[in-house]
Amino acid sequence: MGFSVSAATAVIFAGLFLALGIFYPAMVNSYERVQAADADQADRALEQANTDIQLDDATGGGQLTATLTNTGSTSLTVSETDVLVDGSYIQRSELDTTVTNVDGTDDSATDLWLPGETLEITYNPGEPFNGNRVRVVTEHGVAVSGAIN
Amino acid sequence: MASVSVSHLIIFIASLVVAAGVAGTLTTGVERVSNAVEDGSLDVSQQVRTDIDIVSDPDSPSIDGNGNLTVHVRNTGSQGIFIQRDSIDMVLNGDFVSNSEFTVTDANGDRTTARTGDVMAININSTYIDSGDNRLYITINSDEEVYEFEN
How far is CA A10 from the centre of its chain? Predict the structure, then answer.
C-alpha cells in the first residue's frame, strides 16, 4: 500500500513538471511578443510627436510648387510624402522633389528630408493646372494643408 | 498469503493507472491552454502593431462624377496590411459597407500588401454617401479611424 502511494505521487509530480515545462515557454514567448509590439508602438508615438512639418508656400499656375520645411526633430522620407490637390491623391511617381540643405545646396536625388531642411515638391500634370487647396502628408500621418496661391 | 500479494499488486497497478490518467489529462489541458495563449499573443501583437491614418482631405473629399467616394488610407504601423476587401470593415453614416460595395487598391502601383508608409485607395459606392455631413468609420485589424467630411 505504501509503495503504491509513492509511485502514484511520483507519476503525478512528473506530469506537473511536464505541464509546467510546456506552459512556461509559451507564457514567456507570448509576453515577449506583446512586449515587443508595445515598445514598437511607444517608439512610433514618440516619433510622431517629434515630427512636424510646415507649409511655407504653394503656388499654382502651369504647375504646382509646394515648399515645406521639416520643423520637427525626426528625419523624414521624401519618397513617402503624399500630396493631395483638391482632395485628389497624386501618385508618388508623378512628383518631382528637391531638398534644400541647411547650408543652401539643392539635392533632387536624396530620399532624406532632415530637420530644418526645405522640401520643394513640383507636380506638373501636363495640362493647365487649377487647384485651390493642397494637403501634404508625411510619415506617421502628420499632415499640413493650405491654399494654393 | 498469496492472495494478499495479488491484491496489493492490483491496487498498485490501479493507482498507477489513475495517476497516469490524471497526469495525462493535466498535461493535455495545459498544452491546449498554452497553444491558445500563443495564438492570442500573436493576435494581440499584430493588433498593437497595426496603425492606420486617413490621408484624404476632410475639406475636399474625393468624389467622382458618379458620386463614388475615394478615401486614401496610409499604413503608419509596423505590420503589413493585405490590400483586399476582407482586411477592411467600414461603417458609413451608420450603415455597414458590405464587401461588394467597395474596392480597395494600392494608390501607387499594384502591390497586394500595404507595408509601412504605403497608401491604399478605398472606393465606396455612391449609394452610401449622403449630401451634407458624412461620417466614415474604418476598422482595420482593430485599429479604428474616423473620417468626417462634407459632400
Answer: 56
b (16+ CB within 10 A) / e for B1-15: eeeeeeeeeeebeeb
Which DSSP letter does residue A90 get? E
Residues facing A69 on adjacent strands: A54, A118
Closest residue in A to B39 (Cα–Cα): A30
Burial class (CB in 10 A: 0-12, 13-18, 19+), A86: middle
**Do the chains contact at A87 and B45, CB–CB below 8 Å?**
no
pLDDT 10s digits, B131-148? 889 999 999 999 999 999
For the stretch B29-62, pLDDT in tens is: 999 999 999 999 999 999 999 999 999 988 888 8
Contact between chains at B60 and A77 (C-beta distance less than 8 A):
no
Regarding pTM above 0.95, the answer is: no
A60 touches B: beta carbon within 8 Å: no
Sequence-distant (6+) residues with CB within 8 A of B77 are A44, B49, B50, B51, B52, B116, B143
Cα–Cα distance between A131 and B36 in angstroms, integer?
A: 54
